[in-house]
Amino acid sequence: MRKKITSIGFQKNLSKETSGSLADQVRDHLRKRILNHEWQAGAKIPGEFELAAQYKVARVTIRTALRSLETQGLIDIRHGSGAYIADFGDSVRAGLQELRSITQTIREMGHKAEMITRSSEVRKATEKEALDLQITQESGVLHIERAITADGEVVAFSYDTFNVEELTPAVIRRISTGSAFAALDSIRKHPVRARAEIHAISSKEIGWGRGRPPSGLYLLLRQVHYLRNGSPIVTGDTYFVEGKFQFIIHRTI
Amino acid sequence: MRKKITSIGFQKNLSKETSGSLADQVRDHLRKRILNHEWQAGAKIPGEFELAAQYKVARVTIRTALRSLETQGLIDIRHGSGAYIADFGDSVRAGLQELRSITQTIREMGHKAEMITRSSEVRKATEKEALDLQITQESGVLHIERAITADGEVVAFSYDTFNVEELTPAVIRRISTGSAFAALDSIRKHPVRARAEIHAISSKEIGWGRGRPPSGLYLLLRQVHYLRNGSPIVTGDTYFVEGKFQFIIHRTI
DNA sequence: TCCTCAATAGTTGTACTACAACTTAGGAGA
DNA sequence: TCTCCTAAGTTGTAGTACAACTATTGAGGA
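^ Those are the sequences you sent over. The predicted structure of the assembly is below.
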């Protein structure tokens, strides 16, 4: 029997998180190379045939990965010419449409990220939470309130609510103390998609402690995260202190 | 000589704007079918072989289109099973990462959209404008200030600046009186990508007239639009009155 | 010398075929 | 009735061939 395709053996080494299809893995690896400034803005990346040789995969697989990167606005494919790095400076690191943890984004920008948990409790769902998580109000949820800091300065206050049905006791403890994304990843419940609303808010009621800005001005990200099978896993509001965190969106046709 | 592939003859009819590759056209057409609720949320769309037969294109082309829609968060492809409509309700209509004119979005949501021009002038570029548009400060720019209304109510104030080098006198007139996107489209200078920063702003200095909100609270979209060849064509700040316009972002891995 | 334009090599786009990997439903067997 | 296996159906990857487009080169003429 022929060797399984899914057990990858890239010439270019892959990180630990080798999940998803081959094309997804190639896409993730190429994205890292791009964000790592292997090529500078406007530069032409290797052709599809050469990339296929580098990764030891078919050209179809490379093309799938490249089209995905183009949709995300990272590269620019020109018929008959090649694929070029989109000129967006370093902003892609903070791209809002890429689903990643805030702390990880802060770290990748070269700062020290911390999460300070203010409260953590398991209780029954509120009406809005039940609606967002597609559960009944009788169901239990894990509600956590945290402040996110970069280099000791508060950049956001977050109010998150998890569906406990999807969690294990060990994961609940881990979420309360560290990154939620990492904890969910350990039980293969990593969200793959989120729907987010954005609002401008001015309020003195948000947040706590000395990290609260005098202006009371926040950018509110109200979002629901979904698993691959389409079921919601966590919902929450994150209040970003205006000016502390730059939000970038790449808009494409 | 064989018939040109680019002269399409879909079984499924295409709109007038038949631009881009075959896969792009199929993607746009499929997106319209999705937003038109041809399939309900969670439903399975036809398989790749059947879609290829419907559109009379190769399966490769269908796959390219479907992957693009998946990256945009409109569908959900599952290996060995099929592609399913992502359950995001009607929110996709106002998706922020889709590059389209505000007025068109308002109209598609079933409201009456208008643009009221307050001022329009050709002058030299400011420092920031020259930087954004990658031109010198000696170059001329078209600066326009407008209010955007939905059903007669102001939803946003916009301050836009165009690179006049890329425009014709006729287009300048057309931009001043109507939709910029439509005018740019007429000379094949339709932007295909934009980089946008989002900010929360509270100010009494923004906007004019009775449409100015008492709270002075805005969601600021500060963006630069790029052509296919990578050169910037227009930059501008749009101040959305908080609460009048719902911003949705689909976040994916 | 400079410009124009045709030839050409290189790259992406599409078509077609074949098979691997996965999902789902249905039937055989206990 | 339940479990497990089989089979059919679907997406994922491989490979080849050619069409369509881009960019470069260089020959020819003004």
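Strands of chain A lie at 75-78, 82-85, 113-124, 140-150, 153-163, 193-202, 217-226, 232-241, 247-252. The CA atoms of residues 4 and 247 of chain A lie 41 Å apart.

Shout if you want it in another format.
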